Structures are given as structure tokens and as C-alpha cells.
């Protein structure tokens, strides 16, 4: 069934203009404390990151307000308004588990390499006379606890695994996608347009690499160019997840997982098995992409939908 528009939404031009404005504002506000408000430079990296957290939160709130004002909203209760952005508590376990499993397929090579490294480390440990004693198990457990505590107390970890994924998904998916869909763009056009705005928000890294890290202009362009390609690919995948499921948790958990894992391992000089497992994982990913994102898994009903509920007509 086709989604039913609840009145006239933004035009294509207005939707694109709003998305460009959100992308520019998301980056510009990060530099506003020192360049515009003339605040003194932060005295530590933690202070610097806290300031950026606040700026990202402000950007997200402003983008949400702009988006909601431009959309043809007919119900103004909290649940309906949050639902526009895909912020929901229903079907939460499906939105957590299925996208995470799907994304993990792309990291099959990374898991294989890690498994081979663990096997080698275990072999060396036992060959040196070590045994699997209670003390050994306790030591491994304590190391895991120490890693978890240090990660949870690290401000950079909060940025990479929580603040950046949350604010980026809110601005570049939850706010932009409804505008573009209601503006009249086709589903696949939106999937490939949104990553362009997402990549624009990473162009500031070119200046950071060139001026702050003293990279040559060519090297800075190469590094940022690679980042842009990666962000476009991931952005298309995240956009697909949100449109297909109607649940913000789906791209959010995928984003957090990818930030934690880094780039997928495709090749390894240690073993050709890594490449083989990676290929098998990508085959599994392609086979399960649509079944694991079936809208009926994430929504109790797919009728009486608004223009931003494109999953209603995408089964």
C-alpha cells in the first residue's frame, strides 16, 4: 500500500536546501565557541570533547525542529513526533539484533583474523609451559574488566561509540530522510543522496589534516578522499536501514558497531582464509539484506502511513 501524505510537504528544492543547511550547521557549530563566541581554547582534550558534545547536541535539536516544522504533521503527541524520526520503543529487540547481525557479516574477515590471532597466542602460551588454570582464567577476566572500565571512562570512546553515532544518525538520517521522501524523491534516490550530505560534514577534516597535523595537501586529500568514499558507502547502508525498517535504532546500532570495529579486514598476509571468510560473509550479507530488514519485522502495521513511512510500500 502506498503511503498517504498528510498534506503538502516541502518541495524538492526546499528539502535539499534544508539538508545542506543541516550539514553545514552540524560542522560550523563545532567551531563556533572559539571562532564566533570567542570562548578561550579548552584547557584539555576532555574539555574540548565536552564542548563538541554540547555543540553536536544543539545541532541535533535544531535540525529536529527544522525537520518537524517542514513536514506535514497532523498528530502532535510525543509518540507521533518521535516516530517521525524513527525514535521508537516497539520492536526494539528486532531493531537491535537483526541489523547488528547483518552488519557483522561484513566483518567476517575481521572476526576470522582475530580468531587466528587468538589461536596463535594460545599456541605460544601452551608451548611455553602455560596451562589453563583458574588463575589464568581470572587474569583474562580481569583484563576484560579493565578494558571495559577504561573504555567507559575515556572521553574519546564516548565520542566514537555514542555521541557521534547518535547525533549523526539524528541529523543525517532521522531529520533529512523524511524531508527528502516527503519532498517527492524516490526511495533509492534518497538512499544515495543522503550520504552526499553526510560526506559534506567530513570535509572539515581536510583543513584539520592540512593545517593542524601538517599533512601535505596531496596526502590530506588522499586521506579525506578515502574517508568520503567510506562515509558515502556507509551512509547509503544506514539510509537503507532507516527507510526499510522505520526504526532509528537499526542504523544507530550499525553505526556504533562499525565505529567500534573500524574498517573490515579484506586481505591478510597471515592466511588466505581471511579473504575467503570475508567473501562468504559478503555473500551472506547480500542474501540476508532484504529478509533481515523486512518492514513487517519492525512494524505491526504498514497501512495509513505518512509520506516519510516509505517502508509501507517497500516489502
TrEMBL record:
Pfam families, A to Z: Rce1-like (PF02517)
Membrane topology: Multi-pass membrane protein
Catalytic activity: Hydrolyzes the peptide bond -P2-(S-farnesyl or geranylgeranyl)C-P1'-P2'-P3'-COOH where P1' and P2' are amino acids with aliphatic sidechains and P3' is any C-terminal residue
Keyword Chloroplast annotated: no
Keyword Transmembrane helix among record annotations: yes
InterPro entries xrefs: Rce1, Rce1/LyrA-like_dom
Keywords: Endoplasmic reticulum, Hydrolase, Membrane, Protease, Transmembrane, Transmembrane helix
Domain named CAAX prenyl protease 2/Lysostaphin resistance protein A-like: residues: 157-261
Primary localization: endoplasmic reticulum
Gene Ontology BP, a term: CAAX-box protein processing
Domain of life: Eukaryota
GO cellular component: endoplasmic reticulum membrane
Coiled coil spans: none
Transmembrane segments annotated in the record for this chain: 12-32, 53-73, 93-113, 179-203, 223-243, 273-290
Broadest EC class assigned to this enzyme: hydrolase
Assigned EC number: 3.4.26.1
GO molecular function, one term: metalloendopeptidase activity
Family: Belongs to the peptidase U48 family.
Protein name: intramembrane prenyl-peptidase Rce1
Organism: Salvia splendens (Scarlet sage)
Taxonomy of the source species: Eukaryota, Viridiplantae, Streptophyta, Embryophyta, Tracheophyta
